[in-house]
Amino acid sequence: MSLSVVVLAAGKGTRMRSSLPKVLHPVAHKPMVQHVIDAGTALNASGVTIVYGHGGDTLKQALAENNANWALQAEQLGTGHAVKVAEQFMPDNDTILILYGDVPLIQSATLERLLAVKPEKGIALLTVKLDDPSGYGRIIRENGSVVGIIEQKDANPEQLSINEVNTGIMAVNGDLLKSWLNNLSNDNAQGEYYLTDIIAMANEQGYAVTTAHPDSAMEVEGANNRVQLAALEREYQKRETEKLMLAGASMRDPSRVDVRGDVTVGQDVELDINVVFEGKVTLGNNVVIGPNCLLIDCVIGDNTVVHANSIIESAEVLTNAQIGPFARLRPGAVVGNKAKVGNFVEMKKSTLGEGSKVNHFSYLGDTTVGQGVNIGAGVITANYDGVNKFKTTIEDNAFIGTNSTLVAPVTISANGFVAAGSTITKDVEKNALSIARGKQRNIDNWPRPVKG
Ligand code: UD1
Ligand code: CA
Known about the structure:
Number of domains: 2
Largest sheet: 14 strands, parallel
Radius of gyration: 31 Å
Helix content: 10-25%
CATH superfamily of the largest domain: Spore Coat Polysaccharide Biosynthesis Protein SpsA, Chain A
Number of strands: 39
Structural class: alpha/beta
CATH class of the largest domain: Alpha Beta
Strand content: 25-35%
Shape: elongated
Bound molecules: uridine-diphosphate-N-acetylglucosamine, calcium ion
CATH architecture of the largest domain: Alpha-Beta Complex
């Protein structure tokens, strides 16, 4: 049976105290609702519909890549009303999976379990037992089977003592759901159209209601304010760092490693404290990342060490390389096998060949460096004239003396040698020495300046 997902996201989120719609607040750099959509699409849903009430333009822009259907719930008249506004996107013969946009930790494995217990015709409900069930709808069972859900505000003391609660997540046949939604009333303590009333309707009409459960209660926890949001972030990070540890990464302190994207690690990886990953990051075997490093969309090869306080973004580092401390690899930097990029070195759109070294205080921009090159301290490639960018080429085994400026476009040919302090504006031939600096004059017995 094909699956359509409906994500409820119309709540205002007043307690966030934010101009951003609540469901766009991020967990691990990704909007909460995007986590929910991803969990739904992982199940091969044929359609995802987002029920929204506020900030429609902002939402549509932020979630444009999802190709979702949009259903406006102009007034928040309850969860049943919210689902009803998505009616046109709920095919009769589909299973409709209802998710909450502010419950981001839901796992697709849990949703698969829910779908697996769904009766051919009827409702599968995700429930959880809580030590403190207050605030939630309580699951009413008779002889073990679910016969209804009673909301906190409508419950009597005996019902309030029930600790099995409704997570809000359920799977229902499209045709049955639509017929039940038509019969909802708002004759209850909150004057709302409760989605949860369809459980009793199903039961009365003889349709089965089955239940499945999440792995942990945190999985179905929502965020109404920033304190709860931070708790979800921590839980998410705990989950992600555990995955990395189980995959072969040791961490000095997992609570000080943050994963804000997709990270894959090889075996025997070591991560020191305050390492932050963003986007897609791949670490090979035996990679060591020192403290206070930010790695964004990058690939780090086997046996490479990234020393403390380095930043790597949209760059590639091959094997057995050394980066940092205090190095910055910007987009398009490629560092070859056994190459070294030392402290206060910045590379952008530049390739450093195998075994080459740029160890201290340098800038390489739009530069191709061959193998076995030594770039002395303070060497700068001047790649920009204020309007256009130009390329520098440094061929194999060249040596660039300390504090030289290479004014692009320029080529230092293989085995070329640039003397310290040179400003190079013309190509240097193979095996040549180039000196381009003012000649030193020594003046004997020079009178030192005196105070006037
Ligand atoms: C709902 C359930 C309750 C369950 C709890 C789990 C109902 C009547 N009650 O309660 O049984 O234990 O969730 O958290 O369903 N929303 C809309 N439009 C609306 C109302 C809500 O889009 O008109 C969205 C909210 O943005 C939110 C979700 O639906 O994502 C749940 O709404 P909320 O007000 O938190 O539901 P509760 O009353 O707490
Ligand atoms: Ca709620």
